[in-house]
Write a structure and sequence with these properties.
Layout lengths: L1 H16 L1 H4 L9 H11 L6 H16 L8 H9 L4 H24 L5 H4 L1 H12 L4 H10 L4 H17 L3 H12 L11 H10 L4 H11 L6 H9 L1
Helix pairs in contact: 1-4, 1-6, 3-4, 3-5, 4-6, 6-8, 9-10, 10-11, 11-13, 13-14
Length: 233
């Protein structure tokens, strides 16, 4: 009796989380590479055979949606390591999948270079921003700013998020970001601009004033260190 109830619970969980797959009455064949990785991760879990089957079906659904399984396997691995119950882990995987799909749609609908899709780090970064509650318009603005340069997107978006936490207005952040992207400064140094805002506070320079200085001077320097000398001393 307990086993029957358990199976029903698993089935209902799967149905409500992935209704399109549950009603399709077909099994989408996992590729061999994904299957082997899943087997290795699930071998370390405490899941029953029925629960493992749910995970196989979930990743078959991921594959059917043309999202690389590698982008969701870390979540599964973390959940298994922490012994997260099936329902919670399935919910987390569904949420991650939804964000990845929305991120892909944002990239493609806004005529952004498909290099963002090929660059899984940038694709994942956009999905993470959605999960963190960033507005889609903000993300689109950053995508347009870094059009065709997915390697810059991550660095710009990290600075954008940091300046938001600092209390800088969104329009002002975008102007600073635009100035940096247009400058010779390497994108890997963008986050170091936060140090300038911290130093400016100690010198009683208002954030708005510092932003204006960055916007004016960024195009004239090649390193943040040089920018610091120009606008703080």
């Amino acid at each position: 009796m307990k086993l029957s109830i358990f199976k029903i619970t698993i089935a209902l969980t799967f149905f409500f989380l992935f209704p399109s797959l549950a009603t399709a009455q077909e099994y989408y064949q996992l590729n061999e590479g994904t299957k082997q990785k899943l087997e290795a991760i699930l071998a370390e879990s405490n899941f029953s055979s029925a629960e493992k089957q749910v995970m196989y079906e979930i990743f078959a659904h991921v594959q059917k949606k043309e999202v690389p399984s590698e982008m969701l396997l870390p979540r599964l691995q973390e959940g298994v390591a922490k012994q997260v119950p099936l329902f919670r882990l399935s919910t987390a995987l569904e949420r991650d999948l939804d964000n990845l799909i929305v991120a892909r749609d944002l990239i493609l609908k806004n005529n952004t270079s498909e290099s963002y899709i090929k660059n899984q780090g940038s694709w994942q970064r956009i999905a993470n921003m959605l999960a963190a509650g960033f507005d889609q318009d903000e993300i689109v603005g950053l995508l347009e700013l870094c059009s065709g340069k997915p390697e810059e997107f991550r660095h710009v978006s990290l600075l954008y998020a940091a300046l938001q936490k600092w209390g800088i207005a969104d329009d002002e952040i975008m102007d600073v970001s635009r100035a940096l992207v247009s400058s010779p400064i390497p994108s890997t140094e963008y986050i170091a601009v936060m140090d300038l805002y911290r130093a400016a506070r100690g010198r009683r320079i208002r954030p708005e004033e510092l932003s204006e200085r960055i916007i004016v001077e960024a195009k004239n320097v090649e390193r943040v260190e040089e920018l610091e000398r120009r606008i703080l001393y």
